[in-house]
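Dear U.,

Please find below the material for section 3 of the report. The protein was modelled together with pyridoxal-5'-phosphate; I have listed the sequence and SMILES used, followed by the predicted complex structure.
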Amino acid sequence: MSGLSRGAPDKVTIKVRGDGSPLAETGSEVEYREEEKAKAAAAQAAAGRAGNEELFERARRVLPGGVNSPVRAMGQVGIDPVFIESARGAEVLDRQGRRYLDWVSSWGPMILGHADPEVLAAIEEAAGRGTSFGAATELEVELAEEVAERMPSVEMIRMTSSGTEAAMTAARLARAATGREVLVKFAGAYHGHSDGLLAEAGSGVATHGIPSGPGIPEAQAAGTVVIPWNDREAVAEALEKHKVAALFAEPVAANMGVVPPEEGYLEFLRQATARAGAMLVFDEVITGFRVARGGAQELFGIVPDLTVMGKIIGGGLPAAAVGGSRELMERLAPTGDVYQAGTLSGNPLAVSAGLATLRRLDDQAYSRLGVLTDRLVTGLKDLADEHGLTVASAPGLVTLFFSALPVKDFEDAKATDRERHAAFYRAMLERGIWLPPSQFEACFVSLAHDEIMIDRTLMAAAEALAATDPRRAVV
Ligand SMILES: Cc1ncc(COP(=O)(O)O)c(C=O)c1O
């Protein structure tokens, strides 16, 4: 049974404009009536639609688990996946016209909120000129220039359609450049699902408790050394023991929940890899263009050898990239001997959406994102103290860990109370709050969120925590 049928999130009305600003503060009657009309239309359309349960039954017959990516399954929080019909601003609407305040933001790309008018206009304009040419375009040059301007470590990029491919390309480049084979990664980090980088991964792999072995050749697995995050000795040992081509790091780990680097840890990684002749690869698929204008490398002042980008760079359409110095990047074909290619790489629609998004992300946008994140974090910390929990965050990223102890690595993240997290998740969903359905993920703050929405989330969280705290459960 779908967990939704027992909830009543449709009671919750979040009145926001397309740009995310609250109608309650500035809205006119006309806009309010339009909102109501849209709601009525959604309810009417929903009446003729198959319900969530029925659709899930159909989906399961043709899609493994009914989903196209495991993180969308909600089994770990005890419910069936909820099928989404549309989204706007900071809201998602399900098939029954229920509205949820969205903290998933499509797992990161929607930093401006959903259906942002400028991003939509850019996509429409590009689509009008054709959706794919399989040839070079000016837009790709503009996007590469925009990225290079933001990240001084990146002189050139190669675009791909997914972060997985970009990380895979980074590994190949690093191996080619160093003439070495071993990759080092951190337990609980996720760099996409390529053979060499899946070992002890976070995100969906951790959520579903899946061993990373099946289907991966032993030789591939043996070529990857996995060590604990925030552990200096393990890094030193791995770099000493093996001829390491590259050390991959999410500079703020965000696929075991948010686990920031300890003070000085990224500097240590930079120095240790340089000393060992290994490449430092920052996987900024999540942190890039989110934690700062130039990503985590700007926030922490570290210069990696290669950077993996995704999510925001595609503005909600499939795009990702690997970037680095001219010297390294020109090892790629056609200038170099390292082969990498993609039919839809640098797709004009995705590049247009990415550019339209990046161009809005100026200093003011990041300071606003910081203010919003701080408000959410401060409120959650008060609640966390009351209920014996922990909050971890970085600009635009927040995780409420169901543990009283600080989480510094994957082992700590795995020691959290997942049952309690699941109960909290369901209680929040019933209150109209859409959270990532896993303890090993981050809430993604967007510029479509505002103070009213944050306060509403905190009020819901206060209720949900009170209702699900095993020490004083009332339901
Ligand atoms: C840090 C990180 N790297 C790589 C990836 C893989 O990106 P994609 O899902 O586009 O393949 C993800 C996906 O969430 C990610 O979070």
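For the text of the report, you could mention the following: The chain has two domains: 3-102+364-468, 117-360.

Regards,
Y.
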